[in-house]
């Protein structure tokens, strides 16, 4: 499986395109600039199969409807944040984007608990990793050794917890109990910034020391 990051919008939120040899692909967090996403997919001759959302803050969902409608694919989100898609007060756009409210249509599939999932040849685990937001989830592709962590874990940092529904202690617990237990060589694809590994964050992330 190949992966490619597309930093999008003013916050440079990472949208990830995961693809198989046959061109089947998943899109994680299409936050902004749908034309940029479409251009990349077209250039690589990919066939999107689904949109996976790590959470529903505005900078992760801004291009959801445009991409869903372009390819006729389904959107997956955790139940805790299904209402955030259509509510600018919940997804943060009302607070951070005066005069521009981000709304998306209802998700096609609502994830209610941790589980193994399979979509068009992609097999992965869903981990509940709340703290940055109540419905934050991470997607772990075991065979490929990759976890898409959303805004839970970054290179040398962790997600902010001062937004509505955030909880610092809960986030640290999520990271330690769900992410740091993965093999140290696991590649972490965060919602912002460069990729890292579980081992690197165990060794050097200053926010995780002393938990």
Automatic annotation (TrEMBL):
It holds the Pfam family Lactamase_B. It comes from the Bacteria. InterPro entries: MBL_Glyoxalase_II, Metallo-B-lactamas, RibonucZ/Hydroxyglut_hydro. Its cofactor is Zn(2+). Residues 12-192 form the Metallo-beta-lactamase domain. Keywords: Hydrolase, Metal-binding, Zinc. Gene3D superfamilies: Ribonuclease Z/Hydroxyacylglutathione hydrolase-like. PANTHER family: HYDROXYACYLGLUTATHIONE HYDROLASE GLOC. This is MBL fold metallo-hydrolase.
């Amino acid at each position: 499986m190949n992966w490619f990051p597309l930093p999008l919008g003013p916050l440079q939120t990472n949208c990830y395109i995961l693809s198989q040899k046959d061109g089947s692909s998943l899109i994680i967090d299409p936050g902004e600039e749908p034309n940029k996403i479409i251009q990349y997919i077209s250039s690589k001759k990919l066939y999107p199969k689904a949109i996976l959302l790590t959470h529903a803050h505005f900078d992760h969902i801004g291009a959801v409807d445009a991409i869903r409608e372009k390819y006729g694919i389904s959107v997956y989100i955790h139940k805790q944040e299904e209402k955030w898609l259509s509510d600018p007060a919940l997804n943060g756009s009302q607070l951070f984007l005066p005069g521009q409210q981000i709304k998306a249509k209802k998700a096609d599939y609502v994830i209610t608990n941790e589980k193994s999932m399979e979509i068009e040849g992609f097999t992965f685990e869903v981990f509940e990793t709340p703290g940055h937001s109540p419905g934050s989830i991470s997607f772990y592709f075991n065979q490929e050794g990759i976890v898409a962590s959303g805004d839970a874990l970054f290179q040398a940092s962790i997600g902010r917890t001062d937004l509505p529904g955030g909880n610092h202690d809960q986030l640290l617990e999520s990271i330690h109990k769900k992410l740091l237990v993965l093999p140290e060589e696991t590649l972490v694809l965060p919602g912002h910034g460069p990729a890292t590994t579980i081992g690197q964050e165990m060794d050097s992330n200053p926010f995780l020391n002393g938990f």
